[in-house]
Specification:
Layout (H helix, E strand, L loop, with lengths): L1 H7 L4 H13 L2 E2 H8 L3 H13 L3 E5 L6 E5 L1 H22 L4 H27 L13 H4 L7 H11 L1
Antiparallel strand pairs: 1-3, 2-3
Helix pairs in contact: 1-5, 2-3, 2-4, 2-5, 3-4, 6-8
Length: 162
Amino acid sequence: MTALEGASGLTGSATAALLALAEFMDDSHVGRLADALGLTHSGAVRLVSQLEAKGLAVRRNAADRRRVEVRLTAHGRHRARAARAARDAVVREATRGLDEKEAATLEGLLAKVIEARVTARVAARKTGASMAWWCRTCDFNACGRPQGRCPAQTTAGHAAQR
């Protein structure tokens, strides 16, 4: 998280919000952002105000005017790209010494860890618990989400059907 925060110039939930908005939540309403980050609605409103004050995001009324949507500015997208690049550099550095077989083993083990954590999170949400989404700082292309290979997405989909 330190690399993300350093590159984005933000801390905590603001960094996660920046990446989530850049990856999959641009034009989402504040309540959805609150849900993704595990914040109260008022906490998300304050967070969006912080992003706006730094010139990273703007609010606008949704089509039905009952909701407020959040969109990153060009400056916000630039900061999100910098944060993503910093995150990717940390992963490359951490896995640099692995050969192909070791990398495949690590990927399989991480998939199992993700599956276990996502299953537990879905079960907790079914009981009314509020918690941040697993993928709020993910790079969907890296995990294969568009191709249906993301372990968090597939696990959540299976768990929700149970």
